[in-house]
Amino acid sequence: MNYRVVNRLFTLAVFSMPPIVGSATSVVWHGGALWCVFEVLSGRRRLSPDTAMRWVALLMLVYVMANVVSFLVNEPSLAMVYKLLPLVAFLLFPFSYSIWTISDREEVAHALVFGAATASFGALILALVQYKYIGMRAEGGAGNALVFADVVCLAGLTCLAGALILDSRRPFLLLLAFVAAFAAVLLSGSRSVWGVMMALTLLLLFICRTRLMVLLRGRLLALAGIAILIVVLTSGLIMERFEALWQNMDKLTEGGDYNTSVGLRVALWKIGFQLFAEDPLFGHGMQNVSTLIREGIEQNFGIQVGFTHFHNGFLTILVEGGIVAGLAIIAMFALITVIAVRSLAKAEDRLERLGGAVLLMLAAVYAGGGSVNLIFGHDILDTVFMIFLIIGLFLARGTSRLADVEASVPSAEPQTRP
Q1: Cα–Cα distance between 255 and 140 in angstroms, integer?
Q2: Under a CB-based contact definition with an 8 Å cutoff, are residues 300 and 267 in contact?
Q3: What are the extents of the domains in the chain?
Q4: To the nearest whole percent, how much of the chain has pLDDT over 70?
Q5: Range of lowest pLDDT (14-18, 120-124, 293-297, 298-302)
């Protein structure tokens, strides 16, 4: 199998899909990752020796084992084993990484940014149709406005990083793709993602300010005009979402009304901290969280509603798997951030800088945005985290294994004995 070609096309495909076809991305990546498991376990290929990947994989393994132990000590049952299925993605990570790195780093980088551009333009088209003609918050093919906003945010920021760092032959196209992604995120109505995307945009522009000045020559008026048009067209939605936020805050602070978007988040956080305090070591198990949330909200706030998480990814992890699971994930995000910062500091290698930018965006969107939403536990979010992490690590700290594979292919020429 020619992995150089397959991995380039696979990269282009999986980075194009998340906001457009949603869970189909998960099916494609998991299918490919299972093949990677077969390749490694059969002895046809070996695990990558990259140190960064192995440290991340180790922390993921600790997270998985902590959740398995939590499941076993909290009244386990065969009927609830399916609740552990989201953990499979973490076990597949090192295998997928190892086979994916049988690639040319330059080719994968270009496939990454143009796949993200496809996702950005496709997301805007779907968002416009859903918002204008169906009258709903844009959710694309993800089926959830917050999930849609997260994956489009990452796609758009990848396009911006590609234009500023990769020195692509089509930087203006990538800038337009970023603008399209930003518009789609606005139409999703996801306020937390708005803030994360704007902050990361300013950070990327500052880091790459020299390159930015070059790109803006002759294009400043066009980009400014497009930006102003987007703000004007979405101003009504923006004002509506912030007015709803202020109203929710007033209802909570003045009337003690928890039955609003903001109020329910506060209620969930209170319940989550109480549950974590009850069993900080082992947690309550992934199989019990939904029931505990439903019972807690009804008993403490008199509201009958169901949630699968606490609208805080770290709190959800702590309640599900305990302190060990939580510390493993916090350490993983810290490691990713350190690698990102160090890679961005290497001005001489643009591929490493692009990988660092991808990792920094990934950590900020998942750890930052996930502090008021969800980090893991949704198939699309889990898959997108894995594919961005794999390519980000590969470009920032990884080594291409094309030479190893080519060296392992036996020569067609006859061998002569001395």
Answers
A1: 36
A2: yes
A3: 3-248+309-402
A4: 92
A5: 298-302
CB pairs under 8 A, 24+ apart, for 215-219?
Answer: 215/163, 215/164, 215/171, 215/172, 215/175, 219/172, 219/175
Nearest to 20 by CA among 89, 111, 112, 118: 118
Q: Is the predicted pLDDT of residue 181 greater than 60, yes or no?
A: yes
User: Locate tokens 């499941």: which residue?
Assistant: 71
Q: Rounded distance, CA 159 to CA 141, Å?
A: 20
Residue 50 is classified by DSSP as -
Whole-angstrom Cα Rg for the chain: 22
In sequence order, the 6+-apart residues with CB closer than 8 A to the CB of 132 are none
pTM: 0.91
Specify the higher pLDDT residue, 159 or 245.
159
With contact defined as beta carbons under 8 Å apart, do 375 and 313 qualify?
yes
Would the pLDDT of 15 be above 80?
Answer: yes
Q: State residue 115's pLDDT score.
A: 96
The answer to whether 393 and 101 are in contact (CB under 8 A) is no
Quick one: which of 129, 51, 137 has its CA closest to 94? 51
DSSP codes of every residue in 250-315: HHHHHH---SSHHHHHHHHHHHHHHHHHH-TTT-S-TTTHHHHHHHHHHHHH------SS-S-HHH
The Cα–Cα gap between 397 and 338 comes to 12
Which residues contact residue 86 at a Cβ distance below 8 angstroms, ignoring those fewer than 6 apart? 286, 376, 377, 379, 382
Q: Which SS3 state, helix, strand or coil, does residue 1 take?
A: coil
C-alpha–C-alpha distance, residues 73 and 87, integer Å: 17
Distance CA 228, CA 223 (A): 9
Distance CA 75, CA 87 (A): 19
Tell me the per-residue pLDDT of 128-170, one tens digit each, with 9 for 90 and over.
999 888 988 899 998 889 999 999 999 999 999 999 998 767 8
